[in-house]
């Protein structure tokens, strides 16, 4: 027969066991709501991030640019415009700047090689955003590289590209020529145009030889003679022509036929200046 203390101890142990089981049950029941509460609290942060991203996208579409003239321009006004309409709007708002053209490309308003004009008398396939930026004359070399990084295409078969490149400075011309893969014949054509426009720095920059072949000298002398006659007929100054002649003389052999011809032409222009 069990003693009374032993029975009491057994009942006490059983009672403590029941209390422990009840505590575990309560604890395990309350834990899930705490986790749910944590997850619920994190949801607003996720939604805020989504709203923030949506707001950033909206703000990008309505981006206000400040161009090189410190003029603030809103790109939204150009949305949906194409070719003639777009160029007309850009001109009307004095917005034909490199910053605006890059902004239109980056925001998806126009394609990097989109034709922006359809009224050029010799065709408009050359008139892309890059070409328009070169015409505007406000581009830095870094901005031009950005156009090219975006995939801007230069068609070396189009004379209009020769024309616009021939008006650039040496580093810019090098960048454009290199990306268009011009051959020697096409580069010489650009050099001829640079000479004709009086861009003698680019002309001499593009030459690969210290002395030009005789046939190329002859072609440039013909251009110079035509310029002299045109200037005489118009009564226009010949200072640019004189500069061209002096550059050509430096590229010809001393006392060669071409050199003597240029020397004679130079003296003729100098005498005309004295009479004026």
Topology:
Elements: H1 4-61, E1 64-66, E2 72-74, H2 83-92, H3 98-106, H4 129-136, H5 141-149, H6 159-165, H7 170-180, H8 184-196, H9 200-206, H10 214-234, H11 239-251, H12 257-275
Antiparallel strand pairs: 1-2
Helix pairs in contact: 3-4, 5-7, 8-9, 10-11, 10-12, 11-12
Protein name: Ankyrin repeat domain-containing protein
Organism: Aliidiomarina shirensis
- Report the helical percentage: 55-70%
Strand percentage: under 5%
The rough form would be described as elongated
Which stretches are poorly predicted, pLDDT < 50 over at least 5 residues?
22-62
Number of strands: 2
Widest sheet, order of strands:
1-2
End-to-end distance: 148 Å
Radius of gyration over all CA atoms, rounded: 38 Å
Q: List SSEs in N-to-C order.
A: HEEHHHHHHHHHHH
Structural class: mainly alpha
Arithmetic mean of pLDDT: 77
Biggest sheet character: 2 strands, antiparallel
Number of helices: 12
């Amino acid at each position: 027969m069990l003693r009374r203390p032993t029975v009491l101890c057994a009942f006490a142990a059983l009672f403590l066991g029941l209390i422990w089981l009840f505590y575990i049950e309560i604890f395990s029941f309350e834990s899930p709501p705490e986790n749910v509460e944590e997850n619920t609290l994190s949801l607003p942060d996720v939604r805020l991030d989504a709203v923030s991203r949506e707001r950033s996208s909206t703000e990008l579409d309505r981006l206000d640019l400040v161009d090189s003239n410190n003029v603030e321009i809103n790109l939204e006004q150009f949305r949906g415009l194409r070719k003639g309409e777009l160029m007309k709007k850009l001109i009307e708002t004095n917005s034909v700047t490199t910053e605006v053209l890059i902004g239109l490309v980056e925001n998806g308003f126009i394609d990097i090689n989109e034709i922006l004009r359809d009224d050029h008398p010799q065709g408009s396939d050359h008139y892309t955003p890059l070409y328009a930026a070169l015409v505007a004359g406000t581009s830095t070399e870094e901005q031009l590289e950005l156009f090219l990084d975006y995939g801007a295409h230069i068609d070396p078969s189009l004379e209009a590209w020769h024309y616009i490149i021939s008006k650039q400075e040496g580093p810019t011309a090098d960048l454009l020529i290199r990306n268009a893969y011009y051959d020697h014949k096409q580069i010489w054509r650009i050099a001829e145009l640079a000479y004709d426009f009086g861009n003698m720095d680019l002309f001499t920059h593009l030459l690969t030889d210290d002395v030009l072949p005789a046939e190329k000298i002859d072609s440039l002398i013909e251009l110079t003679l035509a310029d002299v006659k045109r200037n005489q007929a118009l009564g226009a100054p010949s200072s640019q022509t004189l500069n061209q002649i002096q550059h050509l003389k430096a590229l010809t052999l001393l006392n060669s036929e071409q050199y003597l011809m240029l020397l004679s032409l130079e003296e003729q222009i100098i005498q005309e200046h004295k009479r004026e």
